[in-house]
Amino acid sequence: MTHTPPTPPRDEATPPGAAGHGRWAATRRRWQERRAALEHRPHLRRAWKVGVAVIGVLVIVVGLVLVPLPGPGWLIVFLGVALLGTEFPAAHRITQWVRGLAHKARLRWRAWRAARAARSARVSATD
């Protein structure tokens, strides 16, 4: 049986998704503490950055190999870029750009679906 600590009371000024509250708050706080400790050790920081770069590039290569095959090839490529974006600002900018495109596509899809539903409702009402 696992014991979960009680959630601290939230004041009204703090939004629900703030860093100190929510389901992942303890995990996020531990990760931030480890990252802060990593910043004080330059050799370990450099090794971490190289490791993230190697793993990110490998994920991108695997995704590119899978692009012509059926499956989530491009999704894997974008996950690799997002992984690189945790350490490299240029990759982070690419990730933000792709997220913006995905958001616009989702909005267009919803608008298209709503227009289609309205058209079909209008057609069925005239029948």
**Oligomeric grouping of the chains:** single chain
> What structural class should be given to the helix and strand makeup?
mainly alpha
Alpha-carbon distance between the two ends: 60 Å
- The count of DSSP E runs of length 2 or more, i.e. the number of strands, is 0
Overall average residue pLDDT: 84
State the low-pLDDT regions, or none.
none
- The Cα radius of gyration reads 22 Å
Envelope shape: elongated
Largest sheet: none
Beta fraction of the residues? under 5%
Helical percent range? over 70%
Number of helices: 4
Order of helices and strands: HHHH
Quick recap of the structure?
The protein is mostly helical. The protein contains four helices and no strands.
Q: What's the helix and strand layout?
A:
Elements: H1 25-39, H2 42-66, H3 73-85, H4 89-126
Helix pairs in contact: 2-3, 3-4
List keywords for this structure.
0% strand; 127 residues; mainly alpha; elongated
How does this model look, in words?
The protein is mostly helical. It contains four helices and no strands. Helix 2 runs antiparallel to helix 3 and helix 3 packs across helix 4. The mean pLDDT is 84.
